From TrEMBL:
Cofactor stoichiometry and binding remark: Binds 2 Zn(2+) ions per subunit.
Name of protein: N-acyl-aliphatic-L-amino acid amidohydrolase
GO CC field: cytoplasm
Binding site for Zn(2+) 2: 133, 168, 393
Residue numbers annotated as active site: 102, 167 (proton acceptor)
Keywords on record: Cytoplasm, Hydrolase, Metal-binding, Signal, Zinc
Pfam families cross-referenced by the UniProt entry: M20_dimer, Peptidase_M20
Top-level taxon: Eukaryota
PANTHER family, per the entry: AMINOACYLASE-1
Cofactor: Zn(2+)
SUPFAM superfamilies listed in its UniProt record: Bacterial exopeptidase dimerisation domain, Zn-dependent exopeptidases
Gene source species: Plutella xylostella
GO biological process terms on file: amino acid metabolic process
Length: 421
């Protein structure tokens, strides 16, 4: 009973403090919140995005900041916009604040509020596709720069704010292409910030690396024939061997993850069977079957050894078994979290000064950060969202306006610190 009453008392306190800190009408009229909601109302969901709309919005943002911008169209209809704020020492490597303008599709019927209306409820929570992933971060970058400029701050390094398309499709027509261009190289990026993931508890999550994505097709060929016989050398037996071996590996990695509470999904290699194809007719043994695995290699895996193992498994499965990569992500240098990386030291110092608890992690999926890192600049994935249900790509994606505003304050400090390194 006693315990219960303490819990009840705590609940009351939490309610009270929440209500006291929130004034929905002040949030409604906050210019940064207005800006965010306008951006969210632009329907930039896959497929067939009309990127002209977010670009027009972003141009007006650049104008409102008094910043010059450039639009690069490496693939027709998929523009990249970069706004630039010149530093006092423009020859120093710059700081890139990258965000993507696209969002994933919605199943509108499953949403309580229309996903492109940016409805705000009585507690200041805004519901919209892309509010976590990652339009809020794009606007936070803009608003942090707006506050710094308004305060008359002059930073040492140049800041570039890039807004890229197609991240949700893997970035092939977006950041991946952009980092290879002379235009990107001319930005002279020394350090970048990009998206992270919301956190449900008190910790902010900071991502310093990503696993390498390998999508591999394994093709087993063999004797075709009548389904009533027991031929040797059939593709089915070979596919079974392959699936067994990969499933054993999967179980081993899963065990490693389950048994060590310090590990998160980004710390281990994952393997998933994602496609299985073959066959022409029920009573005919086919001459070919194919299985596809989605493999994410942990950052400590030796790529050559892993491929050698795939090769060995194919060989053991029998003759006529080959493999092909649909995607073979290279090893990408991780962003160093030590004294060798002054940007990290500056970032960390700000989180300490603000008493923000952080957790550093390997990103479980893929973001544009991997291209930036591969392009030679350290990058951190950080969305300043905590005490928030993690809803990226889900129905009812939401974020509280107060959390969003707090994030602008955090970026104001972080951007200042890393730009003055
Ligand atoms: C969306 O949110 C509402 C409450 O706000 C809830 O009733 C509904 O189940 C949610 N939908 C999904 C798919 O989570
Ligand atoms: C607003 O917050 C209060 C207190 O936490 C909660 O009881 C209420 O359900 C919330 N309203 C909405 C629409 O989520
Ligand atoms: C993929 O496989 C790993 C185990 O290797 C598992 O932990 C993970 O949840 C799987 N992903 C999906 C989407 O099933
Ligand atoms: Zn994203």
């Amino acid at each position: 009973m006693r315990r219960l009453s303490i819990v009840l008392l705590l609940c009351c306190l939490v309610d009270w403090s929440l209500n006291a800190s929130l004034d929905p009408s002040a949030l409604q009229s906050d210019p940064a919140v207005v800006n965010l909601r306008n951006y969210l109302r632009i329907r930039s969901e896959h497929p067939n995005i009309n990127y002209a709309e977010p670009i027009a919005f972003l141009k007006s943002q650049a104008d409102s900041l008094g910043l010059p911008y450039k639009v690069y169209e490496l693939v027709p209809g998929k523009p990249i916009l970069v706004m630039s704020w010149l530093g006092a020492s423009p020859d120093l490597p710059s700081v890139l604040l990258n965000s993507h303008t696209d969002v994933v599709p919605v199943f509108e019927k499953s949403w309580t509020h229309p996903p492109f209306e940016a409805f705000m409820d009585e507690n200041g929570t805004i519901y919209a596709r892309g509010i976590q992933d990652m339009k809020s971060v794009g606007i936070q970058f803009i608003e942090a720069v707006r506050r710094l400029k308004a305060a008359g701050v002059q930073l040492k390094r140049t800041i570039h704010l890039s807004f890229v398309p197609d991240e949700e499709l893997g970035g092939a027509d977006g950041m991946r292409k952009f980092v290879e261009t002379e235009d990107y190289k001319a930005l002279n990026v020394g350090f970048a910030l990009d998206e992270g993931i919301a956190s449900a508890d008190d910790d902010y999550l900071v991502y310093y690396a990503e696993r390498s994505v390998w999508h591999v097709d394994i093709i087993a060929t063999g004797k075709s024939g009548h389904g009533s016989l027991l031929h040797d050398n059939t593709p089915g037996e070979k596919i079974r061997y392959i699936i067994d071996k990969f499933s054993d590996l999967r179980a081993e990695y899963k065990k490693r993850l389950d048994e060590n509470k310090d590990l998160t999904i980004g710390d281990v290699t994952t393997i998933n069977l994602t496609k299985l194809r073959g066959g022409v007719q029920s009573n005919v043994v086919p001459e070919k079957m194919t299985v596809t695995f989605d493999i994410r290699l942990a950052i400590d895996v030796d790529h050559k050894e892993f491929e050698d193992m795939i090769q060995r498994i194919c060989k053991e499965a029998g003759e006529g078994v080959t493999y092909e990569f649909e995607q073979k992500g290279p090893y990408v240098e991780t962003t160093k979290l030590d004294d060798s990386n002054p940007y990290w030291l500056a970032f960390k110092k700000v989180t300490e000064e603000l008493h923000l608890p952080i957790k550093t992690l390997v990103f479980p999926g893929g973001t544009d950060s991997r291209y930036v890192r591969a392009g030679g600049a350290p990058a951190l994935g950080f969305s300043p969202i905590r005490r928030t249900p993690v809803q990226l790509h889900e129905h009812n994606e939401s974020l509280n306006a107060q959390t969003f505003l707090d994030g602008i304050g955090i970026f104001e400090k972080i951007v200042t610190a890393v730009a003055n390194v």
